[in-house]
Design brief:
The complex is a heterodimer of chains A (141) and B (254).
Chain A: H1 21-28, E1 42-43, H2 47-50, H3 59-72, H4 83-93, H5 99-115
Chain B: E1 10-19, E2 36-41, E3 44-52, H1 60-72, E4 80-81, E5 86-88, H2 91-100, H3 103-113, E6 116-125, H4 127-136, H5 139-150, H6 160-189, E7 195-200, E8 208-215, H7 219-232, E9 237-245
Antiparallel strand pairs in B: 1-3, 1-4, 1-5, 2-3, 6-8, 6-9, 7-8
Helix pairs in contact in B: 5-6
The chains are: A mainly alpha (141), B alpha+beta (254).
């Protein structure tokens, strides 16, 4: 969708070609010229679609997540490797984020769910397993 | 005028402000597959297209149609995208109330965007690497970690207070590191940028989430620099660069 898409590979810099709805929403969400309120007929944003994706999970919930990830970390169990070795291992193992995974879960649940159906304007709640027909269970905030 | 949607069948979806002599690609269609047209006033143009008002825009195909139009425009000159979902009743309203009413400001805006492109840069931590760093670097965290890890599964609740305290300490360290690393990245990048805005504060989700405004003739330099930074921080930071895209983050609102 952009002027140039995915030109080169092999580098460390990730250069995805934005394609899915999630990417589009990410790029245009809340962005762009807003014209004077009194002249506009409608500025029907996509707030409903995305507002929950931007929640900041604060306090205890986050702390427990961090604690869990920290405890899961195999720091000393592998015979006291130093950090650089460990990082190498992590790379090879393709270790994926757990805390950030959890935090991003909200967004993923929303955006990937929206990617393949027509219910894009549904007010889905994050952190709900989207397989469980999230769009039919409208939240009652 | 505010309520003209009532009883109106269709309006004009506004895609972007451009210069009056902007060449809009032939055959470009927007929402509802309606062709887009260029309305002009003085030196300004607005790229617009018919839009049926029987529903709010926001479906998947609406969003992709909008970006398809906006992304097709930059080849013809500077582009200031309207926020998605901006609809006006008719051409006269667009010309009078938008282009005419804000002629000078919009002209200056286009001037500032001439020859500029936007990238979206996101830096995230390789989680386990940074957690290890945090554990190594903090005595209290190490102690709490040992204590809470030692608890058997069924007694985990007993250590709840400790676990919350552990997570709190870790998350504060994480944030502190994220701010420091965001500053470092921006300091490296700044000399090559026209401007940047943070799309999100450094934190749990991302170290850096920023829109970069870059002169077209420096774009290669920026990409090369980012490639080098990504290589240097490999294993600890992941850098993800999207674009170029239209300068959505540099049109004076947020």
């Amino acid at each position: 969708m952009t002027v140039q898409a995915q030109r080169r590979g092999g580098g460390y810099l990730d250069r995805p070609a934005p394609s899915g709805l999630a990417d589009v929403v990410e790029i245009i969400l809340d962005k762009g010229l807003v014209i004077d309120a009194y002249v506009r007929v409608s500025l029907v944003g996509i707030e409903l679609l995305t507002i929950d994706a931007r929640i900041v999970i604060a306090s205890v919930d986050t702390y427990l997540r961090f604690a869990e990830a920290t405890n899961r970390l195999d720091l000393y169990e592998h015979g006291g490797k130093d950090l650089s070795e460990m990082v190498g291992d992590l790379q090879e193992g393709g270790a994926s984020g757990k805390v950030s995974g959890a935090v991003k879960g909200a967004k993923k649940a929303l955006t990937s769910g929206s990617d393949d159906d027509e219910g894009d304007d549904e007010d889905e709640r994050p952190r709900r397993p989207r397989k469980a027909s999230a769009s039919s269970r409208r939240s009652s905030r | 005028m505010t309520n003209t949607t009532q009883g109106t069948d269709s309006g004009l979806m506004l895609y972007a402000v451009v210069r009056a002599d902007h060449i809009v690609p032939d055959g470009l269609v927007g929402l509802d597959d309606n062709p887009v047209e260029l309305l002009t006033h003085g030196g300004l143009g607005a790229v617009v297209g018919e839009f049926t008002l029987d529903r709010p825009p926001g479906r998947r195909q609406d969003l992709t149609a909008y970006t398809r139009v906006v992304d097709a425009l930059p080849a013809g000159g500077p582009v200031a995208p309207f926020r998605f979902g901006t609809v006006m009743p008719d051409a006269r309203a667009v010309v009078d109330d938008v282009l005419g009413a804000q002629e000078q400001a919009l002209g200056e805006l286009l001037e500032s965007l001439d020859g500029q492109i936007q990238y979206n840069l996101r830096a995230t931590y390789v989680e386990d690497a940074v957690l290890a760093e945090i554990v190594e670097g903090d005595q209290r965290i190490r102690e709490l970690r040992e204590r809470t890890r030692a608890l058997p599964e069924d007694l985990q609740d007993a250590g709840l207070r400790d676990r919350i305290r552990l997570g709190e300490l870790v998350s504060h360290q994480w944030e502190r590191l994220a701010h420091a690393d965001a500053d470092t990245l921006l300091a490296e990048l700044s000399p090559t940028l026209t401007a940047h805005v943070l799309r999100r504060e450094p934190g749990a989700e991302a170290v850096l989430d920023a829109a970069l405004l870059v002169a077209v003739d420096r774009s290669q330099e920026v990409e090369d620099l980012l490639e080098r930074l990504a290589a240097d921080s490999h294993g600890r930071l992941r850098l993800r660069l999207v674009g170029p895209v239209a300068p959505y983050d540099f049109v004076g609102t947020s």
